[in-house]
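Re: your question about Glutamyl-tRNA(Gln) amidotransferase subunit A

S., sorry for the slow reply, the queue was backed up all week. Below is exactly what I fed in.
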Amino acid sequence: EVSSIELTQYFLDRIEAGKRWNAFLDVNAHLSLEQASKADLLISSGQSGPLTGIPVAHKDVFVTRGWKSTAASKMLEGYLSPFDATVVANLGMPSEDNPRGAGMVCLGKTNMDEFAMGSSNENSAYGPVPNPWNAECVSGGSSGGSAAAVAAGLAPITTGSDTGGSIRQPAAFCGLTGIKPSYGRVSRYGMIAYASSLDQAGPMGKTAEDCAMLLTAMSSHDPRDSTSLADSGEDYGRYLQQAWKAGNTNVAKPLEGLRIGLPKEFFAEGLAEEVANSVNTAAKALEALGATLVDVSLPKTRLSIPVYYVLAPAEASSNLSRFDGVRYGHRAAEYRDLSDMYKKSRTEGFGEEVKRRIMIGSYVLCHGYYDAYYLQAQKIRRIIAADFQAAFNQCDVILGPVAPDVAWRFGEKSKDPVQMYLEDIYTLSTNLAGLPAMSVPCGFNKNNLPIGMQLIGNYFAEARLLQVAHQYQ
Ligand code: GLN
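Result:
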């Protein structure tokens, strides 16, 4: 049996030897080992839970006491938070103030696209994260560091955040399992805000089983997040070993009774053939396990891109107004007056993509354009959510690709932002609707790059999604 200290030291050594992945923005070996020794004490005194002493790395979007919290922005360079995000506390060391802490050891903070804006991790102010399967390709984004850390064996499991695909897409690009829960399942307190009505945290790991364990410990009702759901007290792993229908004892067909919907818009033009083939093969495998495949339609899929890229920047422009150089974060060295100080601090602190989104957001919210863009987008958002409900009248779970293609090469899409936005087509609509969705590895392309399939469930169906993924795995 290994101690938490030994396990933690092993991963710290892996991180040190794996610097070329640029997956970590901050490590603090001393603090990690201190937590590990506390965890060992809990274990030896019989006070441990299933995750006590297991190391975890957090996306740098979660503020963390003792580690720098920057959201991969120059704006927050060197920033030390005085408190832990709820996710960090829920997973961290238990104490009198934090009785439900799972006792996991923090390994450090993982690289990401600046303020979680991006799909390739190329927007990090601290450099990109190569894909461990092929270092010439991107790891995906925005949780590229969290994905690469697990794929390269630098961490056993990590946290991520998903506003429009940032858990699922990097998980797919790096051959991992990841789940974005229903909106409100995991507290957003201390998660540096991008687009608050879409932001949701979740786990990234090797298997559905790992994700279920982490999600169970991560989620809680939090009075400090007004959109936080009531605590369901659920064990998200409770169905993993069970058949879909209670009482089904046919071990060869555990998924009997499960209806899987294949939205025709998810298999239309623009989807790489290798990805389509791989997802279709997975559908056949699920069918062999007893599931029934049905055709469904999500007619507004195409519109999820313009809708998301109006609403997310609108919310971002408001959320990021707090970074003004006054209370915390970067402040320009020289300025004439207050407005010059704001202008220079923000010009120097924010990267190009972040500035682009702030400008788009300010534009669509301004008087005269609000009705034409923001309001219109909100209306279509409602229709997108209703379309999902119509589909769920015909099926229990929706299956499709996570992304139109596998990981692309560095620079391939970074010159044209619209090109990059189009890559999000299959992931955005679930955030707009607030539904849970997960990424499950389902094969490789001819160049040995991982392919992911996406499972989408109705509200609060996380445990069922994890069950389907586990039966497949
Ligand atoms: N790629 C999308 C964006 O750039 C989604 C990012 C995310 O989920 N945080 O906004």
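The longest strand covers residues 437-444. The CA atoms of residues 240 and 471 lie 7 Å apart.

Happy to talk it through on Thursday.
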